[in-house]
Amino acid sequence: ILLHTKGLDLLLQGYSDYRKEGGTGLLWIIGDGNELSKLKKMAESYGVAESTVFHGAIYGAQKDELIGQLSAFYHTSRNEGLPGAVLEAASLGVPCIVSRETNVLEYITSYNSGIGLSENNAPRIAESMHHVTSMLQTGELKTLSANARKMIQEVFDWNVIAANMLKIYGA
Prior knowledge:
Elements: H1 8-20, E1 27-30, H2 36-45, E2 52-56, H3 60-68, E3 73-75, H4 84-91, E4 96-98, H5 105-110, E5 114-116, H6 122-138, H7 141-156, H8 158-169
Parallel strand pairs: 1-2, 3-4, 4-5
């Protein structure tokens, strides 16, 4: 866990605001690291320790099964290359809520496969959580789920990437 870099402090604060504004549900955090105890203390200080589940490090089919159960996948990084976790979640049909700094915001937006945070801060995160809750209730989240899979197939599939590389380099 890279608390600051991955924006987990923002995610916890946004989740806390969401809960204070009447939001429901659990926040699942998957991963491990030397900052985990600090993150758990933050959850306590924000008053969301009881509704935050720390799953620790999980791999393979077990991780896919867990991520597949999510209503939405949040990636609130302050800086990122290309986040594999977002691609994994999208490939499982989980709508992704991402910061601009994840470098996938353009894809998420153009494919309507999640929500792009206009600003990477607690108020926008809380607002997006309310929006996800609303879309879950109306069934709109199913469209985002299908679009997430489509995005992976059309942009991030290795066969598509290889074909594009061949076009670029004229092989």
